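Figure 2 data, in text form.
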Amino acid sequence: MKILRVIAILFFLASAAYADLYQWKDREGVIHITDDLKKVPEAYRNKVKVFESTAKEKEREAEPPPAVIIQPPQRDIGEEIYGDHTLEWWRQTFIKRKEELASIESSVTAKRQYIDIFESGRRTGQIFEPTEIETYNRYKSELPRDQERLVDLRTDLDELRRKATIAGVPREVRD
């Protein structure tokens, strides 16, 4: 009985020594290696590089190579990669930048209007409450920073559009 156990253990170890290895690279460029194809994420299985064991290679040398059917990878449109990012990442980034730009633009416009109204009221002799004077002074000091931020956001958006164009992002996402 002990001999059968020893033989079974040796057989198991010998078969494990000849296991295939599967290698794939994830989106961040990290290379992963495993001996079980089930451990490879579904999204990377069509890109797996297989390193076969030497025993299996010798067996296959005697066999004719199997017919290979090449199928294009099945991808969801949201999964398409443009440059280093998915199409959805580009879409969300453009939306976020445009919303931030619109917010700053409306804030700058509102502050300019308040300052213009306040200054025209001063010229006509209008008397203002302390809170209105405080708001005027705050807006007057914030406006140059907001205008600078507006220029920076426009520059960033232009740079994002340039990178997206180079990466081949569709025009409807960029505009």
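Caption note: The radius of gyration is 32 Å.
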